[in-house]
């Protein structure tokens, strides 16, 4: 069984503030340790379920957050950026399941450190006219590749967002939102036991690997429409120079393609937006 773990940071056990998750923040180094602890719990759950290969993609910010010296030795780590597919770099149809660790709710949602990819620079996103964020876009891209998003960990708002997209996703809430920068925390040992046990249970329910799963299995070429409303009209205007990008209104652009192709193109949109703006991620 081949497992892919995408690890974000805002939904990690104990973390509630920008200083917990941003390089240079006063608690960022503690946040890195906490992130590694949650990922290690996910790895342990996958191993108990019989995983033979586990790839972890560091999917937050600089994508150099996980502590390589304490990461579980059974995991292979994809680290650094830029990455063509960002949060799901390395995910292919050859993987049997995707696990999202430390995820958060979309922009505008009542969730801990809620945002969509870029702090407040992205005001809203829609996939086929449905409001989405990182969870929905990752789920759609994985599904198009033929990979099931099997489990997700984060605050209770992120878990609810995931099951709204797909009721079959197993979730492990590690904290409960009180405000965007406050939460009721589960104790670390309890939260990580929940992560491990949830992943063990959902992977144990999956059909046994017959060894014949390939990257062409269940791949979909169905197209979707991704629309993004930016805080700055300058971003939207500049993105219109990319073939296939069209205007919805002065601050909103859209494109049509398969979800993996849209995910890849959206990474380019974010690099353009980063070059044009200098916004703090959380405000």
From TrEMBL:
One family name in Pfam for this protein: Peptidase_M55
Keywords assigned: Aminopeptidase, Hydrolase, Metal-binding, Protease, Zinc
Residue numbers binding Zn(2+) 2: 8, 60, 104, 134
Highest rank taxon of the organism: Bacteria
GO molecular function: aminopeptidase activity; metal ion binding
Residues given in the record as Zn(2+) 1 binding sites: 8, 10
Listed InterPro entries: DppA_N, Peptidase_M55, Peptidase_M55_sf
Signal peptide: none
Active site: 115 (nucleophile)
Record protein name field: Peptidase M55 D-aminopeptidase
């Amino acid at each position: 069984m081949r497992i892919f773990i995408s690890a974000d940071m805002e939904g990690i056990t104990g973390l509630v503030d920008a200083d917990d998750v941003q390089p240079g923040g006063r608690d960022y180094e503690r946040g890195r340790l906490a992130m590694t602890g949650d990922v290690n719990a996910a790895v342990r759950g996958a191993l108990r379920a019989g995983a033979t290969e586990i790839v972890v993609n560091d999917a937050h910010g600089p994508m150099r957050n996980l502590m390589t010296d304490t990461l579980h030795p059974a995991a292979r780590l994809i680290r650094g950026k830029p990455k063509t597919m960002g949060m799901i770099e390395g995910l292919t149809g050859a993987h049997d399941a995707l696990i999202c660790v430390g995820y958060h709710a979309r922009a505008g949602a009542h969730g801990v450190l809620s945002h969509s990819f870029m702090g407040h620079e992205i005001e809203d996103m829609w996939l086929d006219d449905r409001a989405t964020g990182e969870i929905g876009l990752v789920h759609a891209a994985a599904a198009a590749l033929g990979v099931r998003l099997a489990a997700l960990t984060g605050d209770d708002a992120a878990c609810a967002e995931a099951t709204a997209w797909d009721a079959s996703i197993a979730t492990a809430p590690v904290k409960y939102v009180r405000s965007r920068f406050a939460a009721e925390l589960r104790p670390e040992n309890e939260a990580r036991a929940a992560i491990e046990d949830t992943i063990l249970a959902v992977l144990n329910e999956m059909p046994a690997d017959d060894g014949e799963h390939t990257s062409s299995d269940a791949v979909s070429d169905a197209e979707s429409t991704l629309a993004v409303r930016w805080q700055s009209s300058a971003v939207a205007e500049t993105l219109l120079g990319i073939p296939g990008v069209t205007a919805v209104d002065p601050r909103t652009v859209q494109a049509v393609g398969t979800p993996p192709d849209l995910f890849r193109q959206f990474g380019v949109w974010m690099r353009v937006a980063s070059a044009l703006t200098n916004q703090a991620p959380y405000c």
